[in-house]
Amino acid sequence: MQLQFLGATGTVTGSKYLVRHAGRQLLVDCGLFQGYKQLRLRNWAPLPVQPAGIDAVVLTHAHIDHSGYLPRLVKQGFTGPIFCTAATADLCHILLPDSGGLLEEEADYDNRHHTSKHEPALPLYTREDAVRCLRQLRPMDWQQDWEPLPGLRARLGRAGHMPGAAFVRLDDGASSLLFSGDLGRPDDMVLRAPEPPPAADFLVVESTYGDRQHPQADVLEELSAVINRTSARGGTLVIPAFAVGRAQSLLYAIHLLKQQKRIHQLPVFLNSPMAAEALQVYHRHHEELRLGGPQCEAIREAAEVVRTPDESRALNARKGPMVIIAGSGMATGGRVVHHLKQFAPERRNTILLAGFQAGGTRGAALAAGAPTIRIHGEEVPVRAEVARIDALSAHADADEIEAWLRAMPAPPKRVFVTHGEPTAADALRARIEHKLHWDAEVPEYLQTVELA
């Protein structure tokens, strides 16, 4: 086997790994780059490999930084199967058309308001492109061997990061290669813990939180405090949240706080039809959750779902106190951008960051204390309180990644640390070398390695 890194190097986004075997090519993950402009421009640049020359794709999970390039890949000539778990297939049916629709909306907004350098502004792909690529999804069972390429066996194990999230093991009889995908947490409030990893000669491991530990904090205590102090000011709490994963965890936490009467009575809005749809997938694949049917139903009842653009705009005219949960999680796009534009300038309001914020995103700028953020070509002042809750993260931290690695039956020959900002990736590399005494490295973009 030969492995080439087409993404997730020096960044947490754009996951793409090309595996060459016996003259054929397999792509593991097919994600969009997000964050810094020079990364986003890679989404528009030609792939280093012809899409028509790729024989198959295997997805670890459905988040856009792992699946969001699929519509463009198919549009450019990829015709092969896209293997994934059943829950990932279900979520892709929600996430990818929504992604295409948002890209069309953003291009339309730029054209109407002349906020783009391009005339006309075009979407990277459309909703129709996304729907077309879904026909190539091939759901596979957990812990079942199959051959994505002739002579190359694959198997999926539960990674715990979101419903359907998997680690992927490839084996050609001579050597084996394991992709961690995004690893979940052993004590997640909603999802089950990741399964132990199998043995493998080579390992590609994520490092999103490779340089830190999640705070040992009481999530409910932190969330109730920020809700109550914002409510006491008569303000609006805006929470950028990924539509799958973070939104559901937040809703469950708010349900518990309401149940325990620990927060003021105030309206809660889920401004993400996609997040509401995803709850159906949570119900359908409840075996991956710690929660039973009644708790899943409680999540659905914790907030009022905002469905139409008109209803979304009406929220901006509404007076607080209230809570608005909206995508996207790093404020790179989606409806939350319009809410930030409206509510960030007011001191009584709060913006709550409840997950990782990749460099170059509006979320990262807010986390760093930026006095303004750029939205639709304007500098919007940030006078609202900016708060953070990292304990809600669905990513394993450095200690949890190390514990998962220690569960491998035998040390791999070589470890490639990816899917992290440079500091985080190098910190995890150093930890693996010094504490586990394994050979580890942080690969470069487009680097190719022989797996022998």
From TrEMBL:
GO MF annotations in UniProt: hydrolase activity; RNA endonuclease activity
Domain Metallo-beta-lactamase, first and last residues per copy: 13-231
Parts forming coiled coils: none
InterPro entries the record matches: Beta_Casp, MBL, Metallo-B-lactamas, RibonucZ/Hydroxyglut_hydro, RMMBL
Domain Beta-Casp: 247-366
Keywords attached to this entry: Hydrolase
Matches recorded under Pfam families: Beta-Casp, Lactamase_B, RMMBL
Name used for this protein in its record: MBL fold metallo-hydrolase
